[in-house]
Design brief:
This protein is mainly α. About 80% of the residues lie in helices and about 0% in strands. The protein folds into two domains: about 40-240, no CATH class; about 245-450, no CATH class.
Length: about 450
């Protein structure tokens, strides 16, 4: 028994540590990411009943609404994070460590200025907003809501800047470590809220302080530790701020930002289109199918997340054999995940809700397109060749709603037509991205294919 266990452990260890150092890092990140994601889901599940025990349904609803409201301000990043991730990885891969530090320092300065301005503006406007009306709550809560919103928004602005250390970790091909720090923050919040249930009455102020403050503390400590140890040579410094490099960061970052906005709009409108065309009762089957197949894409995203910056490094070092080998492995992984999907589908929902076969088939086609396309899109993102993807995304954003109506109503395909229309809008990944990938690696990419 012990010998068998030792043999099995040795086999797993060899499997993980075998291959190129870049591949070993990727495999370790994937394993850690799976563990961290699982624990994060568990913590989020525990958080809901604990929060309901502490806050009444009204205050809980206010908190959810406030969180959604604050979430919209993540767009103030304007793609700087993605721009820093690519430029930092490129600079390090070329051995230009001073340039990497300039990129880090400049990004901190730009984002710090933006968020300081936004925070000051919000603080000036906040006293004139009746938050009780905004959240449709009792007027008596307004005295509690105004300082709560200001507190949470201020912490959010500070967190926005502190999160840049997570970008550095991702650029260094350690995204799972960043996820681990987020998990630690969530566990700390959960622990503090549990204590609050024992020593205080349901207070939105204390709750907001616990949830928002813990993340600030964790990332402040992480930043101080990492920038004084592992990433000391890249630590942000006033003397390394060079605003002339802002254009280099923003040119790429804004393209990522616009692409992200378009896809968010497309996915956000699908439910609305189905509800408007066929009634809210048809949204349920669509969402069940989407969430199930979404698990397939989520698993695949865990596999590909560490590869973004790995591709950046490999491309800069012209390690095309590693790139091609990784792409081949991802193709095999996507086929396995899709092949076993019907079994999980049946196991998950059984007969609780009838999902039309045609809808499942359409959703399957959608996942095939997204999963297959992401194999190549993550490479293109990693090397910053996203101009063609941007133009396609803008066109897709314009055509999405007309296509949805055409397929769903004119062609009488119902909600399944919405899925097919969205799949067509996502066709850059499975159709054009592989072509661009081959052109770039064959060094035949010209014009828009090489931008």
């Amino acid at each position: 028994m012990i010998k068998s266990l030792a043999k099995y452990t040795s086999y797993i260890n060899n499997l993980i540590n075998k291959g190129h150092s870049r591949s070993v890092r990727t495999k370790k990140n994937i394993i850690l990411a799976v563990i961290v994601k699982g624990l994060s889901i568990l913590v989020s599940l525990l958080m809901v009943p604990l929060t309901l025990d502490y806050l009444d349904s009204t205050k809980y609803g206010i908190w959810l609404t406030l969180s959604s409201f604050i979430g919209w301000f993540t767009f103030f990043d304007i793609g700087l994070g993605h721009g820093l991730r690519n430029r930092f990885a490129e600079a390090v891969a070329r051995g230009k460590y001073k340039l990497a530090r300039i990129y880090v320092s400049t990004t901190y300065a730009i984002l710090g200025i933006i968020m300081a301005g936004v925070c000051i503006l919000f603080a000036l406007v906040n006293p004139f907003i009746n938050w009780s009306q905004v959240f449709n709550s009792q007027q008596v809560l307004n005295n509690e809501l105004a300082p709560l919103v200001l507190l949470v928004f201020s912490f959010f602005c500070l967190q926005f800047v502190l999160d840049l250390v997570g970008i550095i970790l991702s650029a260094d091909q350690r995204p799972a470590i960043n996820d681990l720090f987020r998990l630690i923050s969530s566990i700390l919040s959960l622990s503090i809220i549990y204590v609050l249930t024992k020593v205080t009455e349901g207070s939105l102020w204390f709750f907001g302080l616990a949830v928002s403050g813990t993340s600030i503390i964790v990332y402040l400590i992480v930043s101080l530790v990492l920038y004084s140890t592992r990433y000391k040579q890249y630590a942000p410094s006033f003397k390394f701020i060079r605003f002339k490099y802002a254009k280099d960061l923003l040119n790429l970052g804004v393209q990522f930002f616009l692409i992200q906005i378009v896809w968010i709009v497309i996915f956000a409108t699908d439910n609305v289109i189905i509800a408007q065309l066929f009634g809210p009762e048809e949204v349920g089957p669509y969402n069940i199918a989407f969430k199930y197949f979404g698990m397939i894409t989520m698993v695949f995203n865990i596999l590909t997340a560490p590869l973004w910056s790995a591709y950046t490094e490999a491309y800069v070092k012209e390690d095309y054999d590693w790139i091609n080998g990784t792409i081949r492995k991802l193709k095999k992984a996507s086929i396995v995940l899709l092949a076993i999907s019907p079994f999980f589908y049946k196991l998950w929902i059984g007969n609780k809700l009838t999902i039309p076969f045609f809808m499942s088939f359409c959703m399957f086609i959608y996942v095939v397109a997204v999963t297959w396309g992401s194999i190549f899109v993550i490479f293109l993102n990693g090397i910053g060749k996203v101009r063609l993807q941007l133009y396609f995304a803008i066109g897709a954003g314009i055509l999405n709603i007309p296509l949805c109506i055409l397929f769903a109503k004119t062609f009488q395909l119902g909600p399944s037509g919405v899925i097919l229309a969205t799949t067509i809008c996502m066709s850059f990944g499975p159709i054009l991205a592989p072509i661009q990938f081959k052109k770039i690696l064959n060094k035949t990419a010209k014009g828009i294919w090489n931008k």
